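Throughout this chapter, every protein is written as a compact record of paired, labelled lines. The reader may check this reading against the record printed directly beneath this paragraph:
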Amino acid sequence: MRKITASLFISLDGVVEAPDQWHFPYFNDEMGAAVDAGIGAADTLLIGRKTYDSFAGAWPDREAAGGEDAHFAKKLGDARKIVLSRQNLSFTWRNTEQLKGDFAEAVTALKNEPGGDIALSGSVSVVRQLMAHGLLDELHLLVHPIAVRKGMRLFDEAETTIPLKLLSSATFSTGVLYLVYAPAESTTDATYDDARTHLPQDGQ
């Protein structure tokens, strides 16, 4: 079964909205390698309409311009791109199609197809749906050392928790933390009485 990974730029206070307004001072070779290892290594991109509009409005021109990022732009152009939207859309960027049918059923079928990893960049609403349906395999967070203090957070308010387990971590020279999580089993009920057995005792 194919693996779905989501990569997000996120602030210290959990904001994922409009990273173009606060992210770029922290972008360096370390982060570029992390992004390329995630999105660049996948052969399929699963994205929301807004992310598609942003990508399609920039990357084809960068590929055509032949600049330093043309190689990465070509990777994105060559990848299969699947857009999630309730509206009927038409596309100008090559290798793009729209996800049809029930979300969970369509994504499950996509995971069962032959091929490489499926990646997401941004598209917070899609990430939330994948987590809600248990379809996201890895969550890659590039945590920036800045409190943005406004904008949409990754996790919205809800009655249920989302337990995760840390698979790996790295610290970049800019202070950015690169954290990779996977879904975890639900946490067991515990109280302070359970936790205090782990606290240092008198004389220790």
Remarks:
- DSSP finds seven helices and eight strands in the chain.
- Residues 29-40 form the longest helix (12 residues).
- The two ends are 50 Å apart (CA to CA).
